[in-house]
Amino acid sequence: MQFRRPCGYNSSTMSERLQKILAQAGYGSRRACEDFITAGRVRVNGKLAELGQKADPAVDKITVDGKAISAAESMIYVALYKPRNVLSTVASEPGDDRKNVRDMIELPGHIFPVGRLDYESEGLILMTNDGDLANRLTHPRYGHTKEYRVLLARRPDREQMEAWGRGVVLEDGYKTQPADVRYETGQGKGAWVRVIMGEGRKRQIREICKQLGLPIVRILRIRIGTLRIGTLKPRQWRFLNNDEINELKARETKKKEVAKPVEYKKMNRR
């Protein structure tokens, strides 16, 4: 089908980059939508789309996997308590029958998790179709942090805590950014530690603890930016209220939040 641009059309003011259009239509963050484009899953007026290309959704026919995108959906914002042994994806790989976070929310339309939380970990996941918000929460320049409670099988010493706070060189040679690491309380031979961090490499806390010689029993995420898990229990979810949504959309300016000195309390040994 040939699409005619209306009289007075100005491509410089009405066109948007494809990744932004797809994000606004609920297909994920802008970075995720860039992957759709580079993978050849997006077409504009029947032609394969290119990264950086612009289009006008009011005029051009844009498809993802052969399906035309709809007008921007009503924005949905959901807080979910992901239990352990659930994938933080919206679809499983062929032959993989494990549950994913999308299975737990009975809502129509496109919604996706913001960021990741590894299979064995549990806690807060934000599900939305707001690609712009997803981009703000996951891009380092906006300074949003995440907070975790980590149960260790043994009690860390001062040296381990301070090393974790300064940054740890992982097996692949990457040094993690400074983090706010605080000893909370002992539990048997182990201990609960609270961690606030601004980056989120795959399995980062687990890799850090592996390098420090601290076996992990449990990882629980309790905060993303300004959003807290509150009273949610595993598998429970709720809609965000307007105040929570507005707070998440407000840019955080305290980018050095994770660089606070490590707080180490005297630990009782048994």
Description:
Strands 7, 8, 9, 10, 11, 12, 13, 14 and 15 form a nine-stranded mixed beta sheet that branches. A four-stranded antiparallel beta sheet has the order 3-2-5-6. It is elongated, with a radius of gyration of 21 Å. It has 270 residues and is of the alpha+beta class. It is 20% helix and 24% strand. The N and C termini lie far apart (76 Å). α2 packs across α3.
**Largest beta-sheet characterization:** 9 strands, mixed
Per DSSP E runs of 2 or more residues, the count of β-strands stands at 15
Strand content range: 15-25%
| Overall average pLDDT | 84
- Counted by DSSP, the helix tally is 7
Rg of Cα set: 21 Å
**Overall spatial form:** elongated
Secondary structure layout:
Elements: H1 11-14, E1 16-17, H2 18-24, H3 30-38, E2 42-44, E3 47-48, E4 54-55, E5 62-64, E6 67-68, E7 77-82, E8 112-113, E9 122-128, H4 131-138, E10 146-152, H5 158-166, E11 180-187, E12 190-197, H6 204-212, E13 216-224, E14 227-228, E15 237-239, H7 242-249
Parallel strand pairs: 9-13
Antiparallel strand pairs: 1-4, 2-3, 2-5, 5-6, 7-9, 7-15, 8-9, 10-12, 10-13, 11-12, 13-14
Helix pairs in contact: 2-3
